[in-house]
Specification:
Shape: globular
Structural class: alpha+beta
Distance between the termini: 33 Å
Oligomer: single chain
Radius of gyration: 12 Å
Helix content: 25-40%
Number of strands: 5
C-alpha cells in the first residue's frame, strides 16, 4: 500500500509518501491510523487527534470506518478550510 501525507501531517511524519504492508488485523482506516501511530513518535504526533484527519482511498474521500482491503493508495489530509 502506498501512503501519501499532506501539509502538517507530512511535516510531522517527516516524509511525503511511503510504501508499507499493514498486518492482516488492520482492516479499516481507523485501524490503520492506530497502527501507524504505533510506528514511532513522529507518527503518534501526526495522528494524535485522528478525528481531524481526512482520508482518501484510491483518490476517493472516505470515513474512518471504510475498509482498506484491496486499496492501492491511501492519502492523509489535515482539515481543510475555505476562504
Amino acid at each position: 500500500m502506498r501512503a501519501l501525507y499532506f501539509a502538517w501531517i507530512r511535516e510531522r511524519v517527516g516524509k511525503a509518501e511511503e510504501e508499507f504492508d499493514p498486518p492482516p488485523s488492520v482492516g479499516t482506516v481507523s485501524d490503520l491510523i492506530s497502527w501507524l501511530s504505533g510506528r514511532g513518535e513522529a507518527y503518534a504526533h501526526a495522528f494524535a487527534n485522528p478525528k481531524t484527519v481526512r482520508v482518501a482511498l484510491d483518490r476517493a474521500h472516505v470515513r474512518h470506518d471504510a475498509t482498506i482491503a484491496g486499496v492501492n493508495e491511501i492519502a492523509f489530509f489535515p482539515p481543510m478550510t475555505g476562504g
